[in-house]
Amino acid sequence: MITQPRYRLADRLIDPSQCTILKDGILLKVELRAMQVLLCLIKHADEPVSREMLLEEVWSGGEVSDNAINRIIGLLRNQLGDNAKSPSFIKTLPKVGYVLISEVTLVKAISRKEKFTEEVVAGSLIGVREGADANSLKKNVFSFLYTHSGKFVLLLSGLIVVSTWLAFKYLSLPQQTRSIFHDVKLKRLTYFDGQEFNPDLSDDGKLLAFSQREYGEKYWRLGLMRIDNGEVNYLNDPFDSQGYSSFSPDGSQLAYLSFNKSGECQINRVDIIDGMFGNREKIIDCKNQMQSTSIEWKINGNGIFYIDESHQLDYLSQKMVFSVSLSGLNKKQLSLPYPIGRGDYSISLSPNGNDLAVIRNVRWYQSQIMLLSLNTGSWIDLFKVDSLLHSVGWSGDSGSIIYKTNDGNLASYNIDKSSHEQFTNIMQPIMSPVSNSSGDVVAVLGTFVKTEILRFKTPFDADESTNGVFAVTKDKSVFISSNSSNIRGVISPDGKKMVFESDRTGMAKLWFKSESGSEVQLDAFEDIQFIRDISFSFDSEFLLGRQGNKPFTYNIQTQVLEYIDVDENVEVYNVSWGVDKAHFVASVDMLGKSSIDLIDVLTGKSIRTLADGGEFGRYSSTGRFYFTRHSQGLWVLEGGEEKLLIDDFTVRTNMSWMIVKNYLYNLVYVEGVNYIERINLVDYSKQTVKLDNNNIIGNSISVDEHGNVFLVASEQSNVDIVKIVFSKVDL
Question: What is the number of alpha carbons within 13 Å of residue 82 lying toward its C-beta?
């Protein structure tokens, strides 16, 4: 981890190593760039800091827009709880710059409560579950202590006993499940205003290739940086976007993906001469509409391995590993057919050239890391991760695979020992590790988007235009916001409560906003990974949701979480409430046969099938059941008979539509514009509101009984490339 001293600004504890601010008992993560700006202000406390000083100390003299600096100052003020008009921390000096006006103290020791909060909230566990009993006990104990941390002194003696016992249990666990943190530092390699992604480091460690785009841009350009002086050159390619680059073994060429707006896609190679791009040549066409791949050179440099799809199918199909010569000949398929998921979508060549690590998508949001022997052609299953990994790297001895854990840190998997060790423990998300033949690792630090939840006040009360589309809604406000991701906001029917997902404390957790406006974390959920389909009961007292294949209910008043036992041979998804709190609806898949079933909450048993081949289904408060199939159309179940109501109707996700009173609300996307459709379930007339926010995320809508609409909007955040420096232990 980055080791730097802590500071205290008034009552805020600043920890640059973790990129966090501890405020009022809440630990907030900070963008790396924003933390660097704050450190610059701290270094020059009570002194004016000009734009030029920030450029020199934070951006190393690079070109940065005024808007970028203003954005970061705004982020810092938001996280410090500062006010630009009457500042307590950062004051703007017109035509001069900024000055830090709060008292600054170098922290040699922090309070017990602060230390406890940092350890419990910022501490992280390996993405492979420990022994269930020990893990559950530790989480329950720490959750209780964190909730009552103000009484820490009274519990100290008991905590010592519990901690000693937990330590004994932990040391008794199998080696492969332990979290061991090494002395690791992060060295930032890119300093640009925007986003850098898809890094690749040359084998000699002198050149870095990466994709880069400015804020607001959709497409990526390919950059080449000299590590010694930071000089960057960009490739001139006629297509719109380039990325997924890979250096040849001798560093003289770079292979990469290039695609354009019309869907054309090809894999090219370009000469590298003295850190500059040279001549470009196509290797092979990839399938139309392909916008991602993964490329590795053969160890002898005469061909590549890459990811593509079947060109015979005119729709998106399973991704597979192929090999091809540099002339585009001798194309061979290496992947084996697999019945579930999107296939093999990322590869990484071991430094010795003997094996390919292959990431396979199995089920929703789950990755299987495989090992393909290039000598024998055999495939070996290594381990699974409950997330979609972008890439993996290797240790220099080809003995370990480096990957991102579920909580956003990096870990290594020892192939011979089948053991995992986590080696970073920071709150700033780190992803996409890539290694060269020497075992040097680069990765991406940060998050691509910041999201907030907006409230649109009764948009269908606006004046309607002549074509049946309501005027663009103007009466909107920010309902949930932080310097992080805030998504899947679900409002209670009475409009007084909201549950949403946020990673403002470093890891994604469920949060609750009460009628008073206070926002608290719901500690009853031990593992937030992939909670979906959240909805309130009609009386606003219970939550229904799904964690993977496990449906659950949550009593808001008693804070009791109960999982619903369903048949382990049945895949459950798209859950929603039934006619009452004793039942729920779910799309189920058993041995390839799909249907929508009504299921008992207590027993988890299916009461009856509501619709064979159905995809999404919801009950209205009047007891009518509406559903969709995989093809277009809205259906209703009346007297046991299925009736088609509307031909032209499509649902994007289970949370992009809902039924409130006698109206069905659906979030649709047409020719680059988001619309809200409202269908009257009495006469089936349709009204439409055009949204003026191009940043609306179209997978979640929530509406209260008053007609107020809640949507998620996003904006791009800064993303940088860092090098992982192992100070003590080589993986």
Answer: 23
